[in-house]
Amino acid sequence: MKVSTRKGLLLPLLAIVLFISQTQPLATAAKDSRPAYTNFVKTKCNVTTYPSLCLKTLTPYASSVKINSTKLCIVALNVAIKGARDASVIVSNLKKQKGISRYEAAAIRDCIEDVNDGVYELKLAVEAMGHLGDKDKEFQLSNAKMYASAVITDADSCTDGFNDRKVNPKVKDVINRSMAVIIRLGSNALSLINHLYDY
Asked: Where does the signal sequence lie (predicted)?
């Protein structure tokens, strides 16, 4: 396959990744969201690694989160799950493209596994956050932090898997951008969990 043809196949994927990097909310925000709730989200987002992305993805949920820090963390984790799933679809589609080498195919398979692990861990983090009212509150909070942190490690593992293999730069770029989405959303969720009880 000619390089120009491969570029034609990959450029739309890049556009999708750029769109995902500005991850849209899982649901449409209520129109009657109160300024006080929006300010709460803004204040919380100030402690995150990527505050602008945090505001964009979480402000639409202000009216349902209100001033509940735990709910905000859970929403952030769910947004990260959606971002990871979207990234997984993009990576999976790469594998279907003609002209993908066996080295690229192997790295893509490993990457998909890493991302799937990340989605599972984010779900476990959500589950742990739902048990903060239990007697083992500190244990559950520790688990939530551990699982949210693990998804960042999974995304890094995916990109590391391409370093020692012969991979088309365009393919590698799509992978890097896709994993960046997961890392940013996961980092924001982890930051919110780490600062859960801050005022």
From this structure: 1-29
Q: Which value, in Å, is the radius of gyration of the alpha carbons in the chain? A: 18
* Residue 196 contacts residue 148 (beta carbons within 8 Å): no
Is 182 in contact with 54 (CB distance < 8 Å)?
Answer: no
30-67, pLDDT tens digit by residue? 444 468 899 999 999 999 999 999 999 999 999 999 99
User: CA angle, corner 89, sides to 84 and 95, nearest 5?
Assistant: 130
User: Among 42, 66, 84, which residue's Cα sits nearest to residue 192?
Assistant: 42
Q: Provide the 8-state DSSP code for 166.
A: -
pLDDT in tens, 68-116: 999 999 999 999 999 999 999 999 998 888 788 888 888 899 999 999 9
